[in-house]
Amino acid sequence: MKSISIPELHAACQNPKSDEIILDVRTPGEFAEGHVPGSKNIPFDQVMNHFESLNKYKTLYIYCRAGGRAITACQILETMGAKNLMCVDDGGFPDWQELGYKVSTQG
Q1: Between vectors from CA 76 to CA 18 and to CA 66, what angle results, nearest 5°?
Q2: pLDDT for the residue 106
């Protein structure tokens, strides 16, 4: 697992690739209030149930609110054999908002 910052996640979002996914591991309620555009919501305690579909991606960018749930999700996926995990482990969505990056409230 590689640690990345919110600005690095933002940079990755500028040219999204079909073999990459941005995973928001917060609760559905938190996700509905706002999230990184293009991200998919799977709460951290459910990522193991989605391993097969997630493991098809070349790169998984994972974030939460402050870093803790992202780290846990990455550890779970790494234990299951996932590679190329990019974890926002020192910050999260509030930092995204504070930097003035675009926020989505759609799906």
Answers
A1: 80
A2: 84
Look at residue 31 and tell me whether its pLDDT is greater than 80: yes
The pLDDT tens digits for 44-59 are 999 999 999 999 999 9
Q: Any residues with CB less than 8 A from the CB of 106 and at least 6 apart, and which? A: none
Q: 2-98, which class in CATH?
A: alpha beta
Contact 88, 29 (CB under 8 A): no
Q: Show me where the domains of the chain are located.
A: 2-98
**Cβ neighbours of residue 94 closer than 8 Å, sequence gap 6 or more:** 65, 66
